[in-house]
Amino acid sequence: MEKRKLNFWQIWNMSFGFLGIQFGFALQGGFMSRIFQTLGAEVDDIPGLWIAAPLTGLLVQPIIGYLSDNTWSPKFGRRKPYFLIGAILASITLFIMPHSPALWIAAGLLWVLDSSINISMEPFRALVADKLPESQRSNGFVVQTLIIGIGTWIASNLPWLVNKMGISNEASAGVVPPSVVVAFSIGAFVFITSIIYTLVTTKEDPPENLEEFLSEKKESRFISDLFASLKDMPSTMKKLGLIQFFSWFAFFTMWSLSMPALTEHVFNAPKPDVKEYAQLNAEGEVLKDDKKETIFLSLEKEEVYKAKDKVYNDAADLVGSSTGVYGLSSMAFALLLSFYTMKNKINRKLIHMASLILGGLGFIYMFFATPSTLMYSFILIGFSWGSILSMPYAMLSSSVNPKKMGMMMGLFNMFIVIPQIIAALGGINFLYKLIGSEHINAMLLAGISLIIAGLCNLFITDKNAISG
Questions:
Q1: Residues 50/256, Cβ–Cβ less than 8 Å
Q2: Phi and psi of 77, rounded to 5°?
Q3: In a 10 Å sphere around its CB, with 0-12 CB exposed, 13-18 middle and 19+ buried, how is residue 368 labelled?
Q4: Which of 69, 214, 252, 413 has its CA 20 to 30 A from that of 361?
Q5: Can you tell me the distance from the alpha carbon of 280 to that of 69, in angstroms, rounded to the nearest whole number?
Q6: What are the two backbone dihedrals, phi and then psi, of residue 4, each rounded to the nearest 5 degrees?
Q7: How far is Cα 243 from Cα 388, in angstroms, rounded to an integer?
Q8: How far, CA to CA in Å, does 192 sit from each of 113, 116, 463?
Q9: At residue 1, does pLDDT exceed 60?
Q10: Residue 130 burial (10 A CB sphere; 0-12, 13-18, 19+)
């Protein structure tokens, strides 16, 4: 039975929860490395600290996709229970995260945060395929991207904005600045309220044949269904997986290393190493007094450290704001596509290829950027981000069994998290140092990876996937 078409605002309402999800992702992606550096992490150790994020996605998303495929309640729906559970856990973690007293606690909370966001996010992808007919799938994923762009821009600017409102971006050594703490608290509030908005305004449709659904549910087993889905993975999904591999390697590189790379290279304001200014014990650890405050070598050393740290925090706020520009340009990209796809078909393959190549050029331009021109890099990156969040899913949803949409979306996530795991386990550090030892070379690596991803679109040949 053909699903009925929805109007723009119905699609908007069912996708609005992505605003909160993206607040969580943008704060995580834009400022976790800043928190790690504040708590004493070395730059080359940061990608390894990020490994929690892709590992949780690898484990959580196929399970949540499977569970949501096999859930139906006349009262609570199919995907909505997972939206709410993930939102509650993520909001609590966002509130606690910037209060982390130690590096290992922040890394552990990142694990919880990413798991919680994944619990909410994956069912949202499946909901588009559940509720929209094939002719509206591109439009549905593009509206999600529009909302994600809004969330990225606002959340990335939050620390800068609250600082401008009078909340300090300075703190003692090893303490996260108040402006970042307040930004994460706002993110927690937005996450839960936007999810609740979607829960209230969107009604899920029951399975087309409820008796058949309940019968299949009784017979389903996760492990056997998992291996069957892997075996039946369509070739288009595998080809999209290759594109996703290089795309997400690039963006993981940006999230983990853009803050130290850009504060150093573009703003000439690296994070000062407190060990150069403080008293150390025999193991080389910073000494602290009874109030847990750093004991400096002298008052002069303390003043020099604080001055340099102030310059770094100002630069970090500006990097965060510049990063938010990719949310704005992805929003503009999505808005244009949204209006166009309401009445017209598009060539998803060519749009995705061009967008990824433009994003790759944006990363490469970072090497030449100044504080006033850095935004142009992120404008180009925004085109690729907008496409990454819509075109692969639109192509995928035209290629898989709709009864297993949640499971297949979860398995598709493997092509997102595996490159991130490889990057976190040393892939970034090894490859960017082949270009040069400066951290900005990690951004050149991201650009090369994204251009390769764009060219891999040439392997896509399925007409149903390409046109939509």
A1: yes
A2: 90, -155
A3: exposed
A4: 413
A5: 55
A6: -75, 150
A7: 10
A8: 13, 12, 39
A9: no
A10: buried
What's the burial of 224, exposed, middle or buried (CB within 10 Å: 0-12/13-18/19+)? Answer: exposed
Residue 364 is encoded by which pair of tokens?
A: 């490469």
Residue the block writes with tokens 């369509």: 234
Q: In the structure, what pLDDT confidence band is assigned to residue 461 with cuts at 50, 70 and 90?
A: confident
Counted residue by residue, the chain has a size of 468
**E-strand stretches of 126-183:** none
Instruction: Check pLDDT > 90 for residue 380.
Output: yes
**Confidence (pLDDT) at 115:** 82
Confidence of residue 451 (pLDDT cuts 50, 70, 90): very high
Phi, psi of 297 (to 5 degrees): -65, -35
Cβ–Cβ contacts within 10 Å for residue 208, how many? 11
Which residue's structure tokens are 């659904």? 213
Tokens (6 digits) for 380: 């180009």
CA dist., res. 21 & res. 29, Å (int)? 12
The Cα 359–Cα 366 span in angstroms is 11
Q: What is the mean pLDDT of residues 330-347?
A: 76
Tell me the C-alpha distance between 127 and 213, whole Å: 17
Q: Max alpha carbon distance in the chain (Å)?
A: 76
Best CA proximity match to 23, nearest among 233, 195, 236, 245: 195
What's the confidence (pLDDT) of residue 363? Answer: 97
Give the 3-state secondary structure of residue 209: coil
Return the axis-axis angle of helices 405-412 and 52-69, rounded to nearest 10°: 170
> Over pLDDT 90: what percentage of the chain?
30
Separation of alpha carbons 425 and 430, rounded Å: 10
In CATH terms, 8-207+220-466 corresponds, of 1.10.3210.10, 1.20.1250.20, 3.40.1010.20, 2.40.10.10, to: 1.20.1250.20
